[in-house]
Design a protein that fits this description.
Elements lengths: L3 E4 L2 E4 L4 E7 L8 E7 L5 E7 L6 E3 L7 E6 L4 E6 L8 E8 L8 E2 L3 E6 L1
Parallel strand pairs: 2-11
Antiparallel strand pairs: 1-3, 3-8, 4-5, 4-9, 5-6, 7-8, 9-10, 9-11
Length: about 120
């Protein structure tokens, strides 16, 4: 069973917005740091955003700063990635991941959701 389930991907025009969701499945991720990553066609998976369990601080890749916002709903055990001002270079499969707040490796991953931005 995949522990994290992403949704919200799709096709959008340049300048448009999408909100991705990532829900825990079969277990809770309360107490975990959460992250979003993406894999562009033909490239390695890269960091997009993260939110820490302790303090709730967020961090972003330079390429998305000011356009993407990550948040979490601890009651729903769900994290979100609000993506605004989308560009064709944001086209990728987006993955949600979780890690212990005391570690550096993301151990739990979702299957990904496709985001396509048309020019």
């Amino acid at each position: 069973q995949v522990p994290l389930v992403e949704s919200g991907g799709g096709l959008v025009q340049t300048g448009g917005s999408l909100r991705l969701s990532c829900a825990a499945s079969g277990r809770t991720f309360s107490g975990y740091d959460m992250g979003w990553f993406r894999r562009e066609p033909g490239k390695e998976r890269k960091f997009v955003a993260a939110i820490r369990w302790i303090g709730g601080t967020t961090s972003y890749a330079d390429s998305v700063k000011g356009r993407f916002t990550m948040s979490r709903d601890n009651v729903k055990d769900t994290v979100y990635l609000q993506m605004n001002s989308l560009k064709p270079e944001d086209t990728a499969v987006y993955y949600c991941a979780a890690k212990s707040p005391y570690g550096t490796t993301y151990n739990y991953w979702g299957q990904g959701t496709q985001v396509t931005v048309s020019s």
